[in-house]
Amino acid sequence: MEKLPKNIPNLHPKFFWDFRFDSIDWDGGYKMVIARIVERGGQDQIDEIVRFYGREKVIKAVRDEISFLPNYAIEDALKFFPELKKEEMCCYLNRKDKPYHWI
């Protein structure tokens, strides 16, 4: 019996350099995937995660579930998803006015 191909997003493995790309749990690890693409991807990658996960799930993850994004990624998320408000984003509320180490 032939294995069916896994349904995975069309993203370059370079975004997941610290994972075994063929072992990523795309459904269970959606918050990691979305955070990584918001932080390091461009519009094409954002479009792909929206296609794969659905716009509502991506927006909910960015607004309510991802606990940390650096300042530049928060600003990028606001550009990618204009309906978001910084003051409602968990990652912003968790670090507002708090210095953080960049490494």
Features:
103 residues, 48% helix
Tell me what you see in this structure.
This protein is mostly helical. The protein has one domain (13-95). The chain is built from 5 helices and no strands. Helix 1 (30-40) crosses helix 3. The termini are far apart. The relative contact order is 0.13. Mean pLDDT is 89; it is low at 1-5.
Which helices and strands occur, and which strands form pairs?
Blueprint: H1 30-40, H2 43-53, H3 55-65, H4 71-80, H5 90-95
Enumerate how many helices there are, as a single number: 5
How many domains make up the 3D coordinates?
A: 1
Fraction of residues in helix: 40-55%
Global geometry: globular
Average predicted confidence as pLDDT: 89
Radius of gyration: 14 Å
The major pleated sheet works out as: none
Residue stretches low in confidence (pLDDT < 50, at least 5 long) are 1-5
**What's the end-to-end separation, in Å?**
47 Å
Return the structural class. Answer: mainly alpha
